[in-house]
Amino acid sequence: MTPIVWNCRGLTFDTARQPLVLGVVNVTPDSFSDGGQFFDPARAIAHALELAGQGADLLDIGGESTRPGATPTPLRDELARVIPVIEAVARQSKTPISVDTMKPEVARAALEAGAVVLNDVSGFRDPDMVRVAAETGAGLIVMHMPGTPQTMNVAPVYADIVAEVVAYLRGQIEILARAGVNPECIAIDPGVGFGKFTEHSLTVLANLEAFDVLNRPVVLGVSRKGFVGRVTGREVAERMPASLAVACFALAANTAHVFRVHDVGPTRDALLMHAAILKHRSPTLTRDSL
Q: How many angstroms separate the CA atoms of 45 and 42, rounded?
């Protein structure tokens, strides 16, 4: 795997050493993946600590659902949901914290509470989010999403989806760099499932190597998503095996560096096993030589 350094407020991740597992903590009443199971702050904190114990390299804590058609969360409510959880987890665990938010006010408060990464599904289109990024030195996850969660999946149309997503992410990297963000703070997320029908998502996954030109860590978030269910016919709770298959495919192809998942322990084990096997592959052995 090509070494790509990701700097996050003084923490440095070398993605050549090992893939990173980013555990999802939804402090929301309407998440598609867990149906509000961790909306209660105490349960969210306990869940975050459990994911840390399972081997999460980072924890992604969010207080606003971004599933297709989700209702926007008022600023006051999002702050009340995520800040106490981030503060508590930061006190009780050494696992670095990411905040999943599109709001600059939440981003700044989360960094003050102990987070080191800003995960913005809107791709830092808000100039105020760009300003927070430039002023704080936070690690960033810049995602591709056309429109908003309310509009993104109404009728997405692409002439060449892979080229268009690469071009969008390149443009956002340039905007952030011009604002003073160190490019080494930036990771990119092609936004599988966000403003993309099933065929779009599968095309992006099949061509992840196209994102190598950006020379930034690629974050892959496919865990339990709707397109996985449409391919397999499985309900949300039954989508882990297929989600693991996607993660291993991306690892085998050397095309992803950070895996944003709900099932941390199984994902970690699958990636470690896959990586261990790859290390023992002979560089010269071919079928013809046997």
A: 5
CA-CA distance, 221 to 119, in Å (whole number)? Answer: 12
- 286 pLDDT higher than 80: no
* Active-site position among 196, 224, 260, 268: 260
Catalytic residue among 81, 108, 225, 268: 225
Q: Can you list the domains of the chain with their CATH numbers?
A: 18-219 (3.20.20.20)
The DSSP bridge pattern shows strands 5-8 and 11-14 to be antiparallel
Span 248-257, average pLDDT: 90
Q: What is the pTM of this model?
A: 0.92
Instruction: State the burial class of residue 267 (Cβ atoms within 10 Å of its Cβ: 0-12, 13-18, 19+).
Output: buried
If we measure between CA atoms, which residue out of 117, 87, 123 comes closest to residue 102? 123
Alpha helix positions (H), the chain: 41-53, 75-92, 104-113, 127-136, 161-178, 198-206, 226-232, 240-252, 264-279
260 among known catalytic residues: yes
The per-type count for the chain, helices as H runs and strands as E runs, is 9, 10
Q: pLDDT-derived band of residue 136, with 50, 70 and 90 as boundaries? A: very high
